Every structure is written in structure tokens, then in C-alpha cells.
Amino acid sequence: MARTRRLGIVVATLLATIFINRVAGAYCPPGGVNSRYILCTCAGSQMYLYVTSCQGSGSGCDPLGGGQVYCTINCAQWNAGSCTASRAPVTPDLTARLDDDLSMHGSSRLECPSAQVFNRWLSKKLSGHPGSLMFAGRSL
Amino acid sequence: MIRRVPVSASFALAATLICKAEQAPLQLRTLATSSNTATTVPAFGFYDFAKSDSDGNMYVHPSEGYAQAVLRIAVSSSEPTLYALPVDLRDKFNLLDFAVTARGSVWVVADTTDHARTVAFEFDSKGQVKNRAEFDLPQGVNVYSFLASDQGTLLLSGLYGEMAAENLRGRSYVALFDQSGTLLRKLDEPTVKVDLGKMSGAPQENGATVGDDGSFYLLDSKQITVLNPAGKPVRRIPISKPAAGLRLAGLYVSGGLAAVRLARLEKDHRVSFSYMVLNLFAKQPPLGWYAADPSIGDAAVAFSRAEGFTFYHVEQGTVHFIRAQLR
């Protein structure tokens, strides 16, 4: 009985490890975990999310340009020895990954009608501002 | 046999019981709405937390529209002002944080995309860059907070990360600069030492704000450290969380009170916030632990002793500012 239970725990741990590695995509080398709070609004609702991304490059990593590697799960759970939380610079890679993350909550910035309304409003209000309006690193 | 207890011991016991009675767990109280100001601004999202000037105007790092800029929303007219780097600099820098002084001066601090340099830019009231400060930071410092004062000083705080010298890793870094980026004072005594190996993916516990008089208030996992305008530590106020599972996520200071933002990490990366209010000048238990009415949301954008909290609230697609006074 106890042996079966122990085996179950071992199998579950292995599966969890495989799952985590598949979800996270890659080993996260020393360099850090970036973190940001973000307030999301859509369709009259609002909520705060907390997102992390691994920072670094190296063997087994999945660089998304600029050395940013994103983890959709708590990075340090799987790489506790070498992750340092820090403030994430907002890069196009990070914002693209944020979109993926937010879509899990039905609050995609790109698809949300209220975001489009805001962008049109801001664009109109800032029409005299030099430079083109940039949305998450892309020109509108 | 009756054992006699010394009178002094009895007093000590009584004092302990009184202290324990005084330290009864704080109860979370729901704030009542005292005013609701509608704006014409369509709902939008932003990174981290909004900041405000002494007139109550809101400043945010928007996640819509410009991703590398600070947006000011005038509370009286709903008019936006954008503080964005010039086009030729936009691809060379990543915005880390921004600062707003009580009088409404706006600064942003940014890393070059190769992380080689950290630079702060000051904007004029029309949103054009008018000044820049280049910082000579030690190797491996991760910047968490950036403050600017109306007295002409800039304060950077952060942690020595994995890329720092081994004996420094996990130590805090706090330094005061002038508006050109010249180092004025480095805090020798670390405010906190963090075991990087035990840092989880949860947010780092920190926060910072500047008072009207140019004093700086730094929050770490254990305390608020008050620095005078010259950057010298003058007071430390220990913090006790009102409940388990909360993380310190920021603070406001007004009229001798501090409002500490408390984060609770929920499932699926969701976070909820509550706020603990402390008297900065009296050794007494916190004055209260508050949350907004759930129908309002929990996104405080400002706090003042006189008017309480101001919350960002989306109603019928537009932004409302909800005031909720302390009770």
C-alpha cells in the first residue's frame, strides 16, 4: 500500500517535471526572472495579473530575441537556484507573451474592443504628438 | 503550596497581556465610496501601479497605445499628455520605471537594450525630453524603484542580482543622484538581504515613494526605511503583515500616514490587493487594513490623509475615479 502510494508520488513528480518543462519550453539559465503586475481591462471588467518571464540565453533556451525567455508558469519552481526576480523591461517580446497569457483570462489586449476604443481615442487626442502611435512595439 | 509571584512579574504579565490584546489580528474592512468622478477616458490597462501628483492627476505606464511611454490623465479635464522617448531613442531603450514629483515633473528610467547603460530622461510639461541623467551603476544591479524629488534629486533602488559579485548578490542597492546622474550618496547599510536561491517567481517585496519635503520612503519585506532629502536613513518602521499569504507590493505616504499595498497571489496569475494604513510617527499598531468594495475593484491610484484612497474603476467602458475615505 505504502509502496504503491510512493510510486504514485514518484510518477506524479516525473509527469509534473515533464509537463513543466514542456510548458516552460526550456531551461532557464542564470540571468533572472522578470516580473510585472499588469492591470487588464476588457468589456467593463478589470483585474490585476502578475506575469513573469525568464531572462537569459544559453543551451536549451528558447530565445525570443533580446535574450528574453518567457515562462508561462512560476519559473523559480523549476529553477529555484538560478532565477532572480527583477523588473521586466517592456519589450515587444514581453508584450507579445503577455497577450498569450492574458488570452487565458479572456482579456486579450489585441482583441479586446475596449482596448481598440482607447487606442483610437488616444491616437486622436495625440494627433499632434511627434512620432507614430506605437502599440506594443508595432505601429498602428 | 501557594507560590507567591513577585509584584514586578505580575506587572510584566499584565503588560504582556495588554500588549497581546492590543496586537489582536487586524480585521479587513471594506471602504465605502465617498465620491465617483466620471471621465471621458475609455478603459485601458497599464503596467504595475499608477502614480499621482499633488493635484491628483494620474500617471501610468500604459499597456495599450505607446508601450514605452508614460501617460498622464488630467483628473479635471480627462485630457491625456504623453511622455515618450523620441523616435530615434525608442528602439535603443527599454523603459524600467517612471517617477512623478509632487509638482508633476515626469522622469522615466530605462536600460539600453543591451543592458549596458541605465539612463533617466526628464520631460517638460508638453512631453518632450528636456534633460537626461546617465547612471554609473555597479555591475549586476537590478533596478526596482526610481524616484524623483522636486528638490532636484533622483533615487534608484534595487538588488544586486546573479550577475553581481558573489559577496553582493541579494543585497539591496540604494543610491541618491543629482539630475545629471552624479552619485551624491550610496546607502552603505543594506536595507534587506535576500537569498536569491530562495526567491520564488513571486513578486519581489518592495515599494518606494517620495514625500512633499523630499524625504524618501523605501519599503522592503520587513520595514519602511525613511531617508531624509540628503539620502541619510533617519527612521525605520517595522511592518507586520495582517494575515498570512500577503506580499508587500508598494506604498503611499501622506500627512504622516503610510498606506502599504498588500498583494495576494491568486490562481492563474491573478492578484488582489488590500491596503494597510500606518502612522509613521507613532509606535502604535496599524490604524487599519482596508479593501475597496468588490464592485469597485482594487486598483488604488492615489492615497491622501484627507481624502483617503482613489481607485481606478471601469464603468460602462470609461474610467471613473472612486474616492473612499478612511473610517
What would you give as the CATH superfamily of chain B?
A: TolB, C-terminal domain
* Number of separate strands of chain B: 25
Q: Detail the poorly predicted runs of chain B.
A: 1-5, 15-21
| Structural class by secondary-structure content of chain B | mainly beta
- By DSSP (H or I, 4+ residues per run), the number of helices of chain A equals 4
Alpha-beta classification of chain A: alpha+beta
CATH fold-level name of chain B: Neuraminidase
- The figure for the number of domains of chain B is 1
Described by the principal axes of the CA atoms, the overall outline of chain B is: globular
Q: Largest sheet of chain A at a glance?
A: 4 strands, mixed
Radius of gyration of chain A: 19 Å
How far apart are the termini of chain A?
A: 62 Å
Question: Which tags fit this structure?
Answer:
heterodimer; A: alpha+beta; two-stranded antiparallel sheet; 6 strands; disordered N terminus; B: mainly beta; Neuraminidase; four-stranded antiparallel beta sheet; 25 strands; about 5% helix
Commentary on this structure:
The complex is a heterodimer of chains A (140) and B (327). Chain A has a domain at 23-92 and 99-125. In chain A, 37% of the residues lie in helices and 22% in strands. The longest helix of chain A has 23 residues, at 2-24. Chain A has 140 residues and is α+β, with helices and mostly antiparallel strands. Chain A has a 4-stranded mixed sheet, with helices on one face. A two-stranded antiparallel sheet of chain A has the order 5-6. Chain B has 327 residues and is mainly beta. Chain B has a single domain, classed as TolB, C-terminal domain (Neuraminidase). Chain B contains 2 helices and 25 strands. Chain B has helices at residues 7-22, 87-90; strands spanning 28-31, 35-42, 46-52, 58-62, 69-73, 80-84, 93-100, 106-112, 118-123, 129-135, 141-148, 153-160, 172-178, 183-186, 207-210, 216-219, 223-227, 233-238, 247-254, 257-265, 270-279, 288-292, 300-304, 308-315, 318-324. In chain B, the strands form 6 sheets. Chain B has a 5-stranded mixed sheet, with no helix packed on it. The longest helix of chain B has 16 residues, at 7-22. Chain B starts with 6 loop residues before the first helix and ends with a strand. The model of chain B is unreliable at 1-5 and 15-21 (pLDDT under 50). The chains are: A alpha+beta (140), B mainly beta (327). At the A-B interface, β1, β2, α2, β4 and α3 of A face β3, β6, β7, β11 and β21 of B. β1 (33-42) of chain A pairs antiparallel with β3 of chain B.
